[in-house]
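// run 5 | inverse folding | seed 20
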């Protein structure tokens, strides 16, 4: 089937609005088809005359006979280079226009230097299983189609993106980087650039009822992707100065619970009910001083969801609490918490509640992991005492394993610089220390995180049943729970003057995203392909070395949301739309 037939069968009949695009593709095809007709001959000893050239003396040089099929490259009069080799005719013009014609099948192929450096079919539509869309590569660009609402064209010459509008039946320019809204007019910004050490974006962003809820300047906001409208949740509560400094967002019983501060109660738990658009207080545990609740976690008990959290109450110190919305009752759970402890990283695993205990005033300071059986309320110390930090509890559940993973610092002199991964299997009551250590070299010269040294191994992400960890610098580590080994998946040498905040990894489809820095662009959004190990810069929101301060990465609506700053606006909410899965 010819290219035109394929285009007609797969595109024109289904989408008549693309008829003009097909005609444009025919014009582009003439370039290569002309080459085939002129230079592709069945005789391997065919010769042509090179144009006569004028010598320095002004004399005419006699024409020279050249074998076009000798396996070497030859430049044609139209600027294209040609070579016949190993059953293919190759045509090269520049890095983005490199084609091959298979003599035995009459099929065309294009070499993709923009993404993964591989040969792809050209001048026909084919289905890309990795990106789950239809692709057609032509002389000057690539078309991507998955639905009438997701039809794109990428111009390889200019780098521009075009998107088809099925309503107006027109092509329009498309930018995958979009600032959602300038919430704070001018350069003031609506978010802090670079959150504190140990920041988890889930504290400030949550997907709920197909909308995105987030905290800006301590206030809960709602973003509707269908209307592209951002509004304050319960504006009356804000006008009444009911709360500020909201964080620790958690969905429970179709409501959003969060911690917030008020002048009347201090820092306590509040909730937002979208059905009534009202924010209300839940409880007052700590009198006017507040109980500083954190690590909010919803657990389904079979009848309703109960809210678990860590909070401080008078002489009881830091404890695990449970709130039942049906009974409007809050209770304290047995634990090792006391006045001199912190209880962090609440994680549900195998029906039990796990967390890290940090004895702040102990000498020496110690950490350990313990659990609460939510049926019997018995407390069990899972790991022994450690004089170095334990952090980042993660429920690692794949098709092969179901276990708890956490990280232990192994260098008392430099906490969070040398880390060991530890796994716990509750079914066999087995603790396994992974022998390979993740490390961060203090001697590497790189631009530092403005908030200071970050936690090594923060925000692990699960991809293809493998657990990926980032480091504050250059590396991404991969843990294979089947063989129990830790691998260095990506290591960027400092000689290329590039630094990645890989501890801020997020994953969408087959790509990972993170903030990255280089000496030309400053801090921008980058992607990492764990299958090809390719790294690519995606943004230049603030052109030049002036950084865009990419932060707060969060996946929502098949887009990568983050906060960033350009030359005009302060830190605002943006998103990157990888609609064509490049």
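// decoded
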């Amino acid at each position: 089937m010819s290219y035109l037939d394929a285009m007609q069968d797969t595109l024109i009949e289904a989408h008549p609005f693309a008829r003009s695009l097909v005609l444009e593709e025919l014009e582009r095809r003439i370039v290569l088809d002309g080459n085939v007709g002129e230079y592709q001959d069945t005789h391997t000893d065919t010769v042509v005359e090179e144009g006569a050239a004028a010598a320095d003396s002004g004399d005419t040089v006699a024409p020279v006979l050249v074998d076009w099929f000798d396996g070497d490259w030859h430049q044609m009069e139209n600027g294209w280079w040609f070579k016949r080799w190993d059953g293919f005719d190759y045509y090269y013009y520049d890095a983005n226009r490199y084609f091959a014609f298979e003599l035995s099948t009459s099929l065309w192929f294009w070499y993709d230097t923009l993404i993964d450096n591989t040969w792809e079919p050209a001048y026909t539509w084919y289905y890309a299983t990795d990106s789950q869309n239809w692709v057609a590569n032509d002389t000057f660009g690539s078309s991507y189609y998955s639905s009438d609402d997701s039809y794109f064209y990428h111009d390889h010459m200019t780098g521009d993106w075009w998107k088809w509008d099925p309503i107006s039946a027109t092509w329009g320019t498309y930018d995958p980087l979009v600032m959602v809204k300038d919430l704070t007019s001018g350069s003031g910004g609506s978010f802090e650039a670079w959150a504190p050490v140990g920041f988890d974006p889930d504290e400030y962003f949550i997907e709920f009822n197909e909308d995105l809820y987030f905290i800006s300047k301590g206030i809960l906001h709602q973003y509707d992707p269908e209307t592209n409208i951002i509004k304050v949740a319960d504006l009356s509560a804000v006008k009444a100065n009911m709360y500020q400094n909201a964080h620790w967002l958690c969905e429970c019983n179709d409501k959003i619970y969060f911690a917030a501060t008020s002048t009347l109660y201090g820092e306590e738990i509040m909730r937002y009910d979208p059905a009534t658009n009202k924010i209300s207080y839940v409880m007052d545990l700590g009198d006017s001083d507040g109980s500083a609740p954190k690590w909010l976690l919803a657990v389904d008990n079979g009848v309703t969801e109960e809210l678990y959290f860590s909070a401080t109450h008078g002489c009881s110190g830091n404890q695990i609490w449970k709130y039942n919305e049906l009974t409007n009752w809050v209770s304290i759970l047995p634990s090792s918490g006391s006045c001199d402890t912190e209880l962090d990283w609440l994680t549900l695993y195998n029906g039990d509640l796990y967390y890290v205990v940090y004895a702040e005033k102990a000498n020496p300071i110690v950490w350990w992991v313990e659990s609460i059986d939510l049926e019997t309320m018995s407390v069990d110390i899972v790991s022994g005492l450690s004089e170095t930090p334990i952090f980042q509890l993660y429920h690692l559940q794949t098709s092969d394993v179901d276990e708890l993973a956490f990280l232990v610092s192994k260098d008392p002199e430099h906490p969070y610089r040398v880390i060991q991964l530890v796994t716990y299997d509750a079914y066999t009551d087995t603790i396994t220390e992974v022998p390979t250590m993740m490390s961060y070299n203090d001697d590497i010269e790189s631009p530092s995180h403005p908030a200071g040294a970050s936690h090594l191994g923060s925000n692990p992400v699960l991809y293809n049943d493998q657990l990926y960890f980032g480091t504050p610098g250059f590396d991404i580590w991969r843990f294979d729970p089947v063989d129990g080994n830790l691998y260095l998946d990506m290591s960027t040498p400092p000689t290329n003057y590039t630094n990645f905040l890989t501890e801020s990894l997020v994953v969408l489809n087959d790509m990972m995203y993170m903030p990255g820095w280089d000496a030309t662009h400053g801090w921008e959004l980058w992607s990492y392909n764990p299958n090809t190990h390719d790294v690519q810069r995606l943004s230049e929101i603030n052109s030049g070395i002036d950084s865009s301060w990419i932060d707060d990465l969060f996946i929502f609506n098949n887009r990568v949301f983050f906060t960033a700053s350009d030359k005009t606006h302060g830190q605002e909410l943006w998103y990157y739309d990888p609609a064509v899965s490049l």
